[in-house]
Amino acid sequence: MSFPPQSSARPASADRLAERVEDCVRAWGVAVERTLESETSVVAFGTREGEAVVLKVVRREGDEWRSGEVVEAFGGRGMVRAYAHVPGAVLLERLDPGTHLAEMALAGDDDEATAILADVIGRMSNPDSDLYPFTSIEEWGRGFDKYLATGDRQLPRALVEEAREVFAALSGSQRGVRLLHGDLQHYNVLYDRRRGWLAIDPKGVLGEPEYEIGAALRNPDRPGLYAVRATVERRVRRYADALGLDQERILAWGFAQAVLSVVWSVEDGFPVDGDAPQLHLARVIRPMLGRLG
């Protein structure tokens, strides 16, 4: 999984982060039971007025800084609900048991996992994108130019250039632009016994619905599953049939995004090379463009 590169803003000090967490706990009346820390955030599990909640505080400005606004914009339609939020922090309903959809796909039921993802996308009804001044996929696509301008040689330049051209062509011919999750894949869909399968951790980006499928095509983290032509064909047909989407555009976005995800990894300082699994997926999809009926 690769996301748009993080902001260059300085990481908050440990003291300042702890202060931000405590401010949210106090302001929102959370009784904390346990906390988890990652490179990007602090997550506190607890209760508020007897209801199980999750408090997520992001360490620094970046692609998750406004996630509370994105969650609120969907209003619980196919997504976890936000009870309160400020820049860099959000209080969410806690999903029970919170099983990742990836477990189903990795256990061998990829078709059912695909159907569930399609259902989640379908329930994430279309908020009026004009009301939400979030970033656009065109802005995300600038990562290609930034990478090529560096002269970096970790990735095959011809493949990056081709993906940039495909991304630009798709961006310029979009239909039905809406607010998208931006990273809707198996690890960001959890099960709740009351509300069913729901999306979490949206990035928030404006684009056409076909763009939303790209992250799911390169997940879960088992290239032997997703970077196979038969799997790609089956998944694309299922998404297109379930959601009334254009198969060719799903494929083309999947190709371009697979390359862009590796570009973002380079930007974030992770070691990659031309054999990255996402690039293998791109090479599987490339000969399919314009031929999947």
* Class by SSE composition: alpha+beta
- Give the overall silhouette: globular
Taking the alpha carbons of the first and last residues, their distance comes to: 28 Å
Q: Can you tell me the CATH topology of the largest domain?
A: Aminoglycoside 3'-phosphotransferase, Chain: A, domain 2
Could you characterize what this model shows?
- The chain has helices at residues 14-28, 67-74, 102-106, 110-123, 137-150, 157-171, 214-217, 223-226, 229-243, 247-267, 277-285, and strands spanning 31-37, 41-48, 51-58, 82-86, 89-93, 97-100, 178-180, 189-192, 196-199, 205-207.
- With 293 residues, the protein is an alpha+beta fold.
- The protein has 2 domains: 14-94, Phosphorylase Kinase, domain 1; 99-288, Aminoglycoside 3'-phosphotransferase, Chain: A, domain 2.
- It has a 5-stranded antiparallel β-sheet, sandwiched between helices. Strands 6-8-9 form a 3-stranded antiparallel β-sheet. Strands 7-10 form a two-stranded antiparallel ribbon.
- A hairpin with a 2-residue loop joins strand 4 (82-86) and strand 5.
- Helix 5 (137-150) packs antiparallel against helix 6 and helix 10 (247-267) runs antiparallel to helix 11 (277-285).
- It is globular.
- 43% of the residues are buried.
- Mean pLDDT is 92; it is low at 6-12.
